[in-house]
Each structure stands twice: as structure tokens, then as C-alpha cells.
Design brief:
The protein is of the alpha/beta class. The chain has 3 domains: 135 residues, FAD/NAD(P)-binding domain; 52 residues, no CATH class; 203 residues, Rossmann fold. It is built from 16 helices and 14 strands. Helix 9 crosses helix 16. The longest helix is centred in the middle third of the chain and has 17 residues. The structure holds flavin-adenine dinucleotide. The site of flavin-adenine dinucleotide has 28 residues, from helix 1 and helix 2.
Length: 426
């Protein structure tokens, strides 16, 4: 370590949309974090790609962060498909609003990262001599941040100007009176060719593989389309045109199925009692889940749905047998990507600290997670809607999968869970 070394919980590489969001999440989770970025500001893709005509080719509203409801109202896109300068301004606006640059180091390229088994930490080295020590190392370096230089014989003999759309000069390029050749007809070329052609004296386009393009029909976003989004940021699902269709599709299927089981949105809870992977039981146990379910039902909760994977079928059957028909056992009947759709309409969730709980944490539904006494930073799902309960024991057997007694779980009694649930949902 040099004199310019820094100790933090988390080092994030890249200040694009992913790196900015990671920083927000790490701060919210109480970690100290530093973002390292080669460029001199935030934006990533939208910092580097400044070629003429650069813009997003999915709807601008889709290209917005959804984790800050205020932001959704404060920022209004001028076009359906915003141009690069506007997207970069958006990234800068978010960085200003959340004071992100405070924990970012620009003009800094990460050159190496080495894990030390003795200290359980990473050492991260950079090209400006700073080095950092961290427990968690997150690569938010993007999938398109390394330009591909075409391997074309003879290009080294070309003495004219050469530009890459991915590292376009910040002051722009004047093509007036020039003969220009563009290699490729992918989306960057489709966007830039008309603008370069309008300026250049002559333009030749080299195309290996024809692409299919459709008219963008760009223009301002209508008030009618924007209104539901502004009134209720949750409607982000309804407004988003592309990726969320899948989510919505599954959600509709689930809501129909749920209705058939008498699961009315807001009137049922979900239990995620896994997991039992490879025969290593790491859960609260059928008897305790059943006791909790019965108590909740006596207190007026209409229904409880059990969700689990094939490993949990037997355990879930034990829970179901100890309850009445109001307990809907869906164990083994759902796919992993059904979990957010299933959990979203529930009133609350009780889960073990497994992967499914992390997926469920993506929904706004209040969730109580029962954790084994392993490193809480590894196991606890994050979210403002999540509270976790963990026995205060100096034990790491769950983590090593060598435990035969699970006394830690015994300390989390059903009445303690009920008390925390009341605090969570009122
Ligand atoms: C021209 C173009 C148009 C696009 N349009 C769309 C679109 O319409 N819709 C869509 O969904 N996606 C689009 N994409 C994909 C886009 O890359 C992603 O949407 C998103 O911006 C990626 O964000 P990111 O934070 O993961 O990575 P990036 O934005 O690529 O950020 C990664 C950052 O990591 C930094 N970095 C990398 N290595 C190091 C290192 N060793 N040390 C320090 N810093 C480093 C880079 O400088 C960069 O700033 C487009 C991509 C391009 C190139």
C-alpha cells in the first residue's frame, strides 16, 4: 500500500448508469464506497459516445432510473428517444441531486485487482498511483465500454483523420468539404450517417451485413402518455414499453391464478421458507412457519401462499398439513422469475435469507427476513421495505454448511417474528 491508499467497504469501477446506481445502493445499505472512473465525469456510455446523432433507441422514459420517485417527477424528457447530450445531462443531474461525485474519483483507471485470502480484502491499483483496499469489488464497467478497433489490413498506412463513435472528440468534428467513409451500418452508423452526409462533400458507407431499421417516429412525449407516470411512479411498469412487458405478462398470469386460489391483492402473505440445497437445511423449519401461519390467520389474515423450489416440497407439505385450506401451497409450481410477480401483490412476505428473498426484495412489498448468524453483509437482502432478524451468536456454521442443530433459528421464536411483523406492517 502506498501513502495514497484508501480503505473502504466497496470499490465500484465505472461511473455509468450501473456504477451510479451501485453507489446509491451501497450508501443506503450503510457501506462506505468509492467509484473509480477513467473519464472526467459521470455518464459512461453517454460520456464517451458523442458522435453526431447519438441517442437512445429505447424510449427515454425506459432509460430512466426508477429508484427515486421524486426524480421521475423532477426530470422531463424532451423527446421519446433522447439525444446523447440530454442523457448525459440526466446522468449529471442525478449525480448532483444525490451528491454522488463526493465518492467518485475521475481520471482514474483501474489497472489491477488482487484478492488476499488472509485479510479477506481486495487491493485495487490505479494508473495514477492511488491504491485502495476493499472488501467488495464491483465491476460496473459496462458491456460496450471497450472500443473494438477493426482489424483491416492497410489501415496503418492511412494518414487521414480517423474517428471512433465510441470516443468521439468532445468539441465535435467539422466534415464540411471532406470526403468521408463510414465503416459499418449498426445503430451508431444509422444514427450518424444522415448527419455526416448532410455536412460532408462526399460520403461512402461500407456495409458487410445489412441491418433492418424501422423509422423511429421520434418526437415529444405526449402529456397523455406521461401523466400516469407522473401521478404515480409505480406506473413505471405500465409505461415502460419493452422489458417490463415480460414482467407484466407474468404478473397478469399470476393474478389470474392467484384469484383462482382466493388470493386477493393486499389480503394475503407469502412465505419463502427455503432453502434446503444439497440437503443442507438452512431454514426456520416447518413447525415454526406453521405456528406463525396459524397465528396470522387467527388475527384475520385471509390467505398465506407458500413458494419454494423442488427441494422445499416436503417441508412445505408439512407446513400445509398443519394449517387449514386458507394456506395455498404453490411450492414447486413456480419459476424463479415468477417470484417478483407473485410477491408484488402480497401484503407482506416472511422469508429465509436465500436467493429467492433477494429477488422478492426487488418488489416494494414489506418483507421480514430470518437470517442465520453468518456475515450479515453477505446474506441480508437490501431494500427500504426489508427488515431482517438475526440471532446474536458468534457462529458461522450455516455458512460452512456444517450445522446439525440450528439453535440460532430457535432463538427467532414465532412470537418474536409476529412482534416485528406488527412493527413492519402496522
Ligand atoms: C451508442 C450506444 C447507444 C446505446 N443505446 C442504448 C439504448 O438505447 N438502450 C439501452 O438500454 N442501452 C443502450 N446502450 C447500452 C449502454 O451501454 C447501457 O444502456 C448502459 O449505459 C451501460 O451502463 P453501464 O454503467 O453498465 O456501463 P457504461 O456506461 O459503459 O460505463 C462503464 C464505465 O466504466 C468505465 N471503466 C471501464 N473500465 C474501467 C477501468 N478499468 N477503470 C476505470 N473505469 C473504467 C468506463 O470509462 C465507463 O465510463 C447503448 C450503448 C451505446 C454504446
Amino acid at each position: 500500500m502506498t501513502e495514497r491508499s484508501t480503505n473502504v467497504d466497496v470499490v465500484i469501477v465505472g461511473a455509468g448508469f450501473a456504477g451510479m446506481y451501485q453507489l446509491v445502493r451501497m450508501r443506503r445499505a450503510g457501506f462506505s464506497a468509492i467509484v473509480l472512473e477513467t473519464a472526467d465525469d459521470v455518464g459512461g456510455t453517454w460520456y464517451w459516445n458523442r458522435y453526431p446523432g447519438a441517442r437512445c433507441d429505447i424510449l427515454s422514459v425506459d432509460y430512466s432510473y426508477s429508484w427515486d420517485p421524486e426524480l421521475q417527477k423532477e426530470w422531463q424528457w424532451s423527446e421519446r428517444y433522447a439525444a446523447q447530450p440530454e442523457i448525459l445531462r440526466y446522468a449529471q443531474f442525478v449525480a448532483d441531486k444525490h451528491d454522488l461525485r463526493r465518492d467518485m474519483r475521475f481520471n482514474t483507471r483501474v489497472t489491477s485487482a488482487e484478492w488476499d485470502d488472509d485479510t479477506d480484502r481486495w487491493t485495487i491499483c490505479t494508473d495514477n498511483g492511488d491504491d485502495l483496499s476493499c472488501r467488495y469489488y464491483i465491476m460496473a464497467t459496462g458491456c460496450l465500454s471497450m472500443p473494438k478497433v477493426p482489424d483491416i489490413e492497410g489501415t496503418d498506412r492511412y494518414t487521414g483523420e480517423v474517428y471512433f463513435t465510441s470516443t468521439w472528440p468532445h468539441d465535435g468534428v467539422d466534415f464540411t468539404g471532406k470526403r468521408v467513409a463510414v465503416i459499418g451500418t449498426g445503430s451508431s452508423a444509422v444514427q450518424s450517417i444522415p448527419l455526416i452526409a448532410a455536412e460532408a462533400d462526399q460520403l461512402t458507407v461500407f456495409q458487410r451485413t445489412p441491418n433492418f431499421s424501422i423509422p423511429a417516429r421520434n418526437g415529444p412525449i405526449s402529456d397523455e402518455r406521461l401523466a400516469p407516470f407522473l401521478d404515480n411512479p409505480d406506473n413505471v411498469y405500465l409505461l415502460h414499453a419493452s422489458g417490463y412487458e415480460v414482467f407484466r405478462g407474468r404478473r397478469d398470469v399470476f393474478l389470474a391464478e392467484a384469484a383462482a386460489h382466493g388470493l386477493t391483492p393486499g389480503q394475503f402473505a407469502i412465505f419463502l421458507p427455503g432453502c434446503n440445497v444439497n440437503g443442507h437445511l438452512k431454514r426456520w423449519g416447518a413447525a415454526r412457519y406453521a405456528a406463525l401461519a396459524n397465528q396470522l390467520h387467527q388475527e384475520g389474515l385471509e390467505r398465506i401462499a407458500l413458494i419454494g423450489g423442488p427441494d422445499e416440497i416436503e417441508e412445505c407439505q408439512h407446513i400445509a398439513q398443519a394449517c387449514g385450506p386458507w394456506l395455498v401451497n404453490l411450492c414447486g409450481q413456480t419459476a424463479v422469475f415468477d417470484i417478483p410477480s407473485l410477491c408484488e401483490p402480497a401484503r407482506f412476505i416472511v422469508a429465509n435469507d436465500t436467493g429467492t428473498a433477494h429477488l422478492a426484495a426487488a418488489t416494494p412489498t414489506p418483507m421480514l427476513v430470518l437470517c442465520g448468524p453468518t456475515d450479515p453483509r453477505r446474506v441480508k437482502p437490501l431494500g427500504d421495505n426489508v427488515i431482517t432478524l438475526q440471532a446474536d451468536l458468534p457462529c458461522i456454521n450455516c455458512y460452512r454448511k456444517t450445522c446439525s442443530h440450528h439453535s440460532c433459528m430457535a432463538m427467532l421464536t414465532p412470537s418474536r417474528i409476529l412482534q416485528r411483523l406488527r412493527e413492519l406492517i402496522g
